[in-house]
């Protein structure tokens, strides 16, 4: 909710203006002296000021109003200020408008004109703030794309911007990185960004998905095997560590590695040494390891399924990827990437934004491919994506989960206080979000 400061020495005027604005869903604070007004603007986030021109008895020159105007603008040069003047002060008010005042209203004011002026200035301020944030983010993304190889990653959210920045920073070092996040959230793409921007970019980059391999073959896959080491092994098998020597090995679904394999992996990380299955000959390699998991490894450690010492070897730095539902700004950007020559209806966009995406980016990509195949021309509608429980008839009926205070605070940080984005994140109207922020006493 936009916070408006009213400055007037007359309590009756303060009460009248406050009531008018509050019934139109504005948050109002009042001050009777210039000193109080300056303190409020200095320490609170004020969207707009309504100020009188005189604050002392029997004073009509307007000088106090001029001084206050310049004092407030010195604190916040972009703060919109509407002057409320008597007819005798109109000339002074016009001079202040030339100096940057947003508007002036003569007493007695017209309620409708005042509300229109306030609404226009608040909307303009919101747009400027949002555009400033978007422009800054776009510049950062463009700069990253120009200076670095982002391996085709598409994103628009602040959350992913932070992940990308961290990945590019980690690319400069050789520390082990653990990437965590739900399936389909883009862990492999982040690993690629780290590798392709590192000093090892031209060296081998070997990927292995431990979750896709039979348990009895994982060790042979990683460390290799001699002929006859296991059933069906007719010749020597070179493992992924040998193949990645001098480069980078990406171990996806590391939580699926059996304990015997974990012990060997720990040894490789510590010394660079291992033996192929069925061999006593020690191999030595120099490999950077990037690992990923969707599992809660701390729980696996407590249950005895994952070695704690290996966890800390792998997790020198952890990158936590949020689920797609937690970074809604990426949804339409990704949809446009997957459907580059197709137009989406408003209802289709709302359906995509409202869907929970349990399968994350992978599910969104599949939904876009399916829609493009089933409807090869024309505007794509919500029903073309066949999203469960989210057709064009029930989007408006979708229940909204009540956010907790911690979730609101996290979203406010993630979206840098841009109310429109936070509201969209939770599926709330701006006014509904404002009420919750006030309820939890969260500054905005």
TrEMBL record:
Modified residues (4-aspartylphosphate): 52
Claim: Magnesium is one of the keywords in the record: no
Coiled coil: none
CDD domains to which the protein is assigned, alphabetical: AAA, REC
GO molecular function, one term: ATP binding
A single GO BP: regulation of DNA-templated transcription
InterPro entries: AAA+_ATPase, AAA_lid_NorR, CheY-like_superfamily, Homeodomain-like_sf, HTH_Fis, P-loop_NTPase, Sig_transdc_resp-reg_receiver, Sigma_54_int
Domain called Response regulatory: residue spans: 3-122
Organism superkingdom: Bacteria
Pfam families for the chain: AAA_lid_14, HTH_8, Response_reg, Sigma54_activat
UniProt KW Phosphoprotein keyword: yes
SMART domains cross-referenced by the UniProt entry: AAA (SM00382), REC (SM00448)
Keyword set, alphabetical order: ATP-binding, DNA-binding, Nucleotide-binding, Phosphoprotein, Transcription, Transcription regulation
Protein name: Sigma-54 dependent nitrogen response regulator
Source organism of the structure: Pseudoalteromonas tunicata D2
């Amino acid at each position: 909710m936009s916070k408006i400061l009213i400055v007037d020495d007359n309590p009756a005027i303060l009460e009248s203006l406050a009531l008018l604005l509050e019934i139109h869903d504005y948050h109002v604070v009042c001050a009777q002296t210039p000193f109080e007004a300056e303190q409020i603007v200095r320490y609170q986030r004020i969207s707009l000021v309504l100020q009188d021109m005189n604050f002392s008895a029997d004073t009509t020159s307007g000088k106090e109003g001029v001084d206050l105007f310049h004092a407030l603008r010195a604190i916040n040069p972009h703060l919109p200020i509407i002057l409320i003047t008597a007819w005798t002060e109109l000339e002074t008010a016009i001079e202040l408008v030339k100096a940057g005042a947003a508007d002036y209203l003569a007493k007695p004011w017209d309620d409708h004109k005042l509300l229109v002026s306030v609404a226009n200035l608040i909307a303009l301020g919101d747009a400027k703030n949002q555009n400033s944030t978007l422009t800054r983010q776009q510049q950062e993304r463009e700069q990253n794309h120009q200076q670095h190889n982002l391996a085709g990653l598409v994103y628009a959210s602040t959350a992913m911007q932070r992940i990308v920045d961290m990945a590019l920073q980690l690319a400069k070092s050789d520390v082990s990185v653990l990437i965590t996040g739900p399936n389909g959230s883009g862990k492999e793409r982040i690993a690629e960004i780290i590798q392709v921007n590192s000093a090892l970019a031209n060296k081998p980059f070997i990927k292995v998905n431990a979750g896709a391999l039979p348990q009895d073959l994982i060790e042979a896959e990683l460390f290799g095997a001699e002929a006859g080491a296991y059933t069906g092994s007719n010749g020597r098998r070179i493992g992924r560590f040998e193949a990645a020597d001098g480069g980078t090995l990406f171990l996806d679904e590391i939580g699926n590695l059996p304990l015997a394999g974990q012990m060997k992996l720990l040894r490789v990380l510590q010394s660079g040494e291992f033996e192929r299955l069925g061999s006593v000959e020690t191999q030595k390699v120099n490999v950077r390891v990037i690992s990923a998991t969707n599992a809660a490894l701390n729980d696996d450690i407590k249950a005895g399924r994952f070695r704690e010492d290996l966890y800390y070897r792998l997790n020198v730095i952890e990158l936590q990827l949020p689920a797609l539902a937690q970074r809604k700004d990426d949804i339409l950007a990704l949809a446009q990437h997957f459907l580059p020559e197709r137009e989406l209806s408003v209802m289709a966009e709302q359906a995509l934004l409202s869907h929970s995406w349990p399968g994350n980016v992978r599910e969104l990509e599949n939904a876009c491919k399916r829609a493009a195949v089933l409807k090869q021309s024309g505007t794509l509608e919500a029903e073309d994506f066949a999203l469960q429980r989210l057709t064009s008839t029930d989007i408006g009926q979708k229940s909204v989960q009540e956010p907790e205070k911690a979730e609101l605070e996290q979203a406010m940080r993630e979206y840098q206080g841009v109310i429109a984005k936070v509201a969209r994140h939770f599926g709330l109207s701006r006014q509904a979000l404002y009420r919750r922020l006030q309820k939890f006493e969260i500054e905005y």
